[in-house]
């Protein structure tokens, strides 16, 4: 076990807002400073995962999460399972067992994630064993299930801001800011929304950087789309912009490759081994230098979201990249990784 010093005992303070109107939590369930972002020791790459009948969508997500260092560090510490009291379904306990198996087996082996496959309906009621599902949708529901595990034993009426301080949110979570600025008097109105991953439109983008630029490009509200300013009390022209107010420790990016009809955007969208969020952050708050390093890439091969095959590439603690294609594990070059038509990216 890795020693772990996470603080699940809440530190209380009166709920207040910052100068931009962002409401602060009255209580912290898990301190962000306790998240161990880097591997504390080298860990060799683990085994592949047997396909149990159209489970490649699940296998690829599990491999990406297994090599998410802060999540693996938390799971391997036993911090959750040592205090978990539920006798029912607990996703965090299941994933802890799975990750523990992965780091005690050789890459030449393959294991079967039967326990997680058998609990598909607990993760999301619409999933069916034996049916191809969407990897991004599965990843979203799995992380939501981890979040529910963190809140077991707490009052269901707990304030949302407090719920957003679990270890899951401290690893994957951040906040968007939507700001509307009156072009008559300069008054700014800010609203905030939490996220656990970022979905980017790629219809007009040839790179992840361009997709982020498009996402954060200001929109002018004018003519029939004017905004009623809280200060002017009349309809005015205004500038609306979405930016990142709080960046996560782990940045999970979903590239919108599938249209509403299920057809796929199959072209390459360029992504780099490093990604800076500095130019996409809210300007009304101070941020440190936000440079991320790529560690996992999930790929969909095929023409639509209802068919095809999912596999992934992960970077181990020694910096080498590996292809994780169901039961097969093999070393690959960084150039091979960067040439992929990525569906999800993990930084």
Automatic annotation (TrEMBL):
<dbReference type="InterPro" id="IPR001394">
    <property type="entry name" value="Peptidase_C19_UCH"/>
</dbReference>
<keyword id="KW-0378">Hydrolase</keyword>
<dbReference type="InterPro" id="IPR050164">
    <property type="entry name" value="Peptidase_C19"/>
</dbReference>
<protein>
    <recommendedName>
        <fullName>ubiquitinyl hydrolase 1</fullName>
        <ecNumber>3.4.19.12</ecNumber>
    </recommendedName>
</protein>
<dbReference type="GO" id="GO:0016579">
    <property type="term" value="P:protein deubiquitination"/>
</dbReference>
<dbReference type="GO" id="GO:0005634">
    <property type="term" value="C:nucleus"/>
</dbReference>
<comment type="similarity">
    <text>Belongs to the peptidase C19 family.</text>
</comment>
<dbReference type="GO" id="GO:0005829">
    <property type="term" value="C:cytosol"/>
</dbReference>
<dbReference type="Pfam" id="PF00443">
    <property type="entry name" value="UCH"/>
</dbReference>
<keyword id="KW-0788">Thiol protease</keyword>
<dbReference type="InterPro" id="IPR038765">
    <property type="entry name" value="Papain-like_cys_pep_sf"/>
</dbReference>
<dbReference type="InterPro" id="IPR028889">
    <property type="entry name" value="USP"/>
</dbReference>
<keyword id="KW-0833">Ubl conjugation pathway</keyword>
<feature type="domain" description="USP">
    <location>
        <begin position="47"/>
        <end position="347"/>
    </location>
</feature>
<dbReference type="GO" id="GO:0004843">
    <property type="term" value="F:cysteine-type deubiquitinase activity"/>
</dbReference>
<keyword id="KW-0645">Protease</keyword>
<dbReference type="InterPro" id="IPR018200">
    <property type="entry name" value="USP_CS"/>
</dbReference>
<dbReference type="GO" id="GO:0006508">
    <property type="term" value="P:proteolysis"/>
</dbReference>
